[in-house]
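haha ok so turns out i had the wrong file open the whole time. this is the CORRECT one, sorry everyone. sequence first:
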Amino acid sequence: MKHKASISHEAAMIKALRDDPKFAAEFLKAAMEDSDEPKVLLIALRQIAKARGIAKVAKSARIERESLYRALSPRGNPRLSTLVAVTKALGLMLTVAPAHA
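then structure:
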């Protein structure tokens, strides 16, 4: 009897971020809620963009691929317009909610 090969955590995350919009939205939402480190948002956006194809996301967001890499890099400091364009290209949107007391 053949055993089904397991996949790595990273491969499973890439597949989920690419194929499941609800999972990607929750992943990004969790990153945004990490108020201790705002860079977590950039990391999450970069992971979703990589899963969906950086070149494809950049084209859809009307941003040069290299600029997208820079904006989402650990040292990136993207403009709000860039964040909105990227999330829109990913089929997501940024939202604001009251902070919990």
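The helical segments are 9-19, 21-32, 39-52, 54-61, 65-71, 80-89.
again sry for the mixup
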